[in-house]
Amino acid sequence: MRPLGGGGYVAPINWTDQSWNDVLDESVRRLAELGLTPIQGDVSTPDESPCLTFAMGWRVEELLPHQSEQVVPLIYDAFPTNWKRIAGVIGASTIRTLLVTSRPSQRALQMLLPDRKVCYCAEAVNLGVFGPSPSFLLRERRVVEFGRRDPIWHAMARETLASSGIAHDYNAAVPGEATGPARRQEFIERLRTAAVSVCIPRAYTDPLQTGGLETMTCRYLESFAAGTLVLGSAPAQLTSLFGYNPVVEIDWINSSSQLTTVLDQLDDYRELVERNTQRVAEVGDWEARATELGTILDGV
After folding, report:
1. What is the CATH number of domain 127-283?
2. Do the domains 4-124+285-298 and 127-283 sit in the same CATH topology, yes or no?
3. Phi and psi at residue 269, in whole multiples of 5°?
4. pLDDT, tens digit, 9 for 90 and up, residues 2-57
5. Reduced to 3 states, what is the DSSP secondary structure of residue 98?
6. Which residues share a beta bridge with 99?
7. What is the spatial distance between Cα 46 and Cα 69, in angstroms, rounded to a whole number?
8. Residue of 31, 26, 69, 25 lying closest to 47 (CA atoms)
9. Tell me: the pLDDT tens digits for 72-107?
């Protein structure tokens, strides 16, 4: 495969959250395999090749030392509460092209930045770090609830699973904690060996910060790649990407009985899990973004 952007490179910002640095490092390695050359150090004066970098919507100011017409930031968490902030920073910079991981955010920011090019790029992960998934039907009846949690559903799950003697992992390698590579590997292994992974959009767990905007996060893609059954709520972005709903939607009224039933009848979900594992390999890896990223970077 030709290098993206005719020879572009990746220069990730060093986030203080080590767990996210691990995820970004995995993404950089995958993008390198697709023809990019990761570099380290200052990118404020890049060469003639476009430079793909990463930023968070609520920390978008960190792009300023790296600003250049050749720098193309991929901005995560571009929620409505961050739109004006992002537009202000980008508008005052020399950055001409940016990527965001939400279509509503792309449309809104394009209106706020009419003289810039704002593009949509769905999140992706390096699926290679998960390796072949252990057989779903041979897995321990264990539920993992990594990342943001709905407090009411979480309390119900703790009580229901404890009374049934079913393992419930919800504290290992949670993004936001300081975790090293060993903890990242622990997270991957626990996800690969669990039967059920709970994924709920941040719009449910933190509506004030997200402005109610549902987004698909990498946790969904990681869970599918790990071969777990995903129980939660599917953002429209996810169903659009997959072409169907790959999530077992939470029954918010009968949540306890639903959780028990799902765990008692895991065999009923084997075909869905296998379909999801195959589909995420087609649409969830960075390779699936290579063509669109190449087109965007070639236009810089």
Report:
1. 3.40.50.2000
2. yes
3. -105, 5
4. 334 434 444 444 444 455 667 777 777 777 777 654 443 444 444 566 777 788 88
5. strand
6. 74, 119
7. 9
8. 69
9. 888 988 888 889 999 999 999 999 999 999 998 999
Helices (H) and strands (E) in the chain, counts: 12, 10
Angle (CA) 101-176-281 rounded to 5° is: 45
Pairing verdict, β 248-249 and 51-56: unpaired
* Tokens matching residue 246: 């790959």
CATH code for the domain defined by 4-124+285-298 = 3.40.50
Q: Which amino acid is at 244?
A: Y
Phi, psi dihedrals of residue 131, rounded to the nearest 5°: 65, -175
Q: Which residue has the tokens 């109610």?
A: 212
Domain boundaries, the chain: 4-124+285-298, 127-283
Give the bridge partners for 230, in sequence order.
197
The residue type found at 68 is S
The stretches of the chain forming alpha helices (DSSP H) are 18-33, 83-91, 103-112, 151-164, 181-193, 202-205, 207-210, 218-225, 236-242, 255-264, 270-283, 290-298
| Residue 78 and residue 57 in contact, taking contact as beta carbons nearer than 8 Å | yes
The span from the CA of 221 to the CA of 87, in Å, is 29
C-alpha span between 209 and 41 (Å, rounded): 32
Q: Distance between CA atoms of 137 and 266, rounded to whole angstroms?
A: 7
Model pTM score: 0.84
